[in-house]
Design goal:
There is one protein chain. The protein contains five helices and no strands. By secondary structure, the protein is mainly α. The chain has two domains: about 1-30, no CATH class; about 30-130, Helix Hairpins. Helix 3 runs antiparallel to helix 4 (about 55-85) and helix 4 runs antiparallel to helix 5.
């Protein structure tokens, strides 16, 4: 098994016109739009999975923050891409990101207040046990 990993490692490091290691290093030093979009998509999927599978309301709020940060990353990535192409409306993504950050801060403050009030009344932070809207 170790021979397989050594052979695979040597294959990756073999010299060609611009070795694979140099090409990979260039990709790390100069990331393009697709890398940011993939990271944003991963953050979004992790956030949605957290919202759908967790019962703790604090973890749900953190998952919502992950979703908003994924959207912010995509806004900034597209803004940078539009700046490179010379579009006049290139700062729209950055401005929209600032608004999303403000909304996220307000959501965190109001959400924390609601969680504290619910904990004082129901003595739980699990979503399944909160039934204040039921008759």
């Amino acid at each position: 098994m170790a021979n397989f990993f050594i052979a695979a490692f040597m294959f990756l490091l073999q010299e060609t016109e611009g070795s694979r290691l140099e090409i990979a290093w260039q990709g790390v030093k100069q990331p393009d739009l697709t890398k940011f979009l993939v990271i944003g998509a991963l953050l979004f999927v992790i956030g949605v999975a957290g919202v759908l599978t967790r019962r703790n309301i604090i973890v749900i709020f953190m998952s919502i923050e992950l979703i908003l940060n994924a959207a912010n990353l995509n806004f900034i990535a597209f803004s940078r891409y539009l700046q490179e192409t010379g579009n006049l409306n290139a700062v729209a993504g950055q401005v929209f990101t600032v608004f999303v950050i403000v909304v996220a801060a307000a959501e965190a403050a109001i959400g924390l207040g609601i969680v504290i009030a619910l904990y004082r009344n129901k003595e739980t932070i699990f979503v399944d046990e909160i039934d204040l809207m039921k008759w």
